[in-house]
Design goal:
Helices cover 80% and strands 0% of the residues. The chain is mostly helical. Helix 11 runs antiparallel to helix 14. The protein starts with 13 loop residues before the first helix and ends with a helix. Part of the ABC transporter complex CysAWTP (TC 3.A.1.6.1) involved in sulfate/thiosulfate import. Probably responsible for the translocation of the substrate across the membrane.
Length: 303
């Protein structure tokens, strides 16, 4: 039976539909497009020379560098942790599974400022662990490690939350068929699991990277606001704005806005690919189920 999407039947009159559409577009224009355009307008209001000079200042370059370093550490860590967590939740039944899923959502439900305070409590100089680390030369709070830890905490759920429903909907029939045909665990993951989840995985990585670069609350608490050392781009923007350096503040903010626009474009592309993958995956799952039913008697006879 072919998969077909039923046509949506609306009963509203044409003037009502036009009015609702105009209201939605007007809301987007006022609350989304206008502030975004204002950022670039203010950044370039004094010309390209001052715009580029603001971006090339040593403190701005240090903020950009620290933001990139933090993202380069936090995103791979959360990719590995999220993939392992999604695999465990989607493929196995174990005691405490519901508690683990609840813990995954903890960074979503807690304020980033509170997350930063948790890091200070756990790794600050007055805590037993933080004091011991400080005595051995490892400074966590008010240094790059603390910023990385706070970023890892607030961005942890994105990859796992993207992969868990995707892997649960796909099932494990293809993986079981691969195992029956003699594939090792690594071969099964590399040739079956990873191709099936690659677009969802990239989508989660993209969201993680966007949040890592734009995180403010948790990073603000643990950074100490040391100029040129522990300020990421959002923190540097806040300092410049409070000092009435509007060109510098909006110039740095435009970098984050460009990253957000790039994220939206890639997000739309990945959503389209994930949708196509979901349709194709359903067909493969049906084929895998047929193959599994055919090979199961052979496996049972060997056993």
């Amino acid at each position: 039976m072919p998969n077909s999407v039923p046509a949506v039947v609306t009963t509203e009159s044409r003037p009502v539909r036009v009015a609702l559409t105009c209201a939605a577009l007007g809301f987007l224009a006022v609350f989304l497009f206008a502030p975004l355009i204002a950022v670039f307008y203010e950044a370039l209001s004094r010309g390209w020379g001052l715009y580029l000079a603001a971006l090339l200042e040593p403190e701005a370059r240090a903020a950009v560098s620290l933001t990139l370093v933090t993202a380069l550490i936090a995103v791979p860590l959360n990719t590995v942790f999220g993939l392992a967590t999604a695999w465990a939740v989607a493929r196995f039944e174990f005691r405490g599974k519901s508690f683990l899923i609840t813990l995954i959502d903890l960074p979503f439900s807690i304020s980033p400022v509170v997350a930063g305070l948790m890091m200070v409590t756990a790794f600050g100089l007055n805590s037993p662990l933080g004091g011991w680390l400080e005595a051995h030369g490892f400074k966590i709070i008010f240094a790059t490690p603390g910023i990385v830890l706070a970023t890892v905490f607030v961005t942890f759920p994105f990859v796992a939350r993207e992969l868990i429903p995707l892997m649960q909907s796909q099932g494990d029939e293809e993986e079981q068929a691969a195992r029956v045909l003699g594939a090792s665990g690594w071969q099964m993951f590399r040739r079956v699991t990873l191709p099936n989840i690659k677009w969802g995985l990239l989508y989660g990585v993209l969201l993680t990277n966007a949040r890592a670069m734009g995180e403010f609350g948790a990073v603000s608490v643990v950074s100490g606001h040391i100029r040129g050392e522990t300020n990421t781009i959002p923190l540097h923007v806040e300092i410049l704005y409070n000092e009435y350096n509007f060109v510098g503040a909006f110039a740095c903010a435009s970098i984050l806005a460009l990253l957000a626009l790039l994220t939206l474009v890639l997000k739309s592309l990945l959503e389209w690919r994930v949708h196509r993958q979901g349709v194709a995956s359903q067909a493969r799952v049906r084929e895998a189920r047929v193959a599994h039913r055919a090979t199961a008697p052979i496996l049972e006879s060997k056993a």
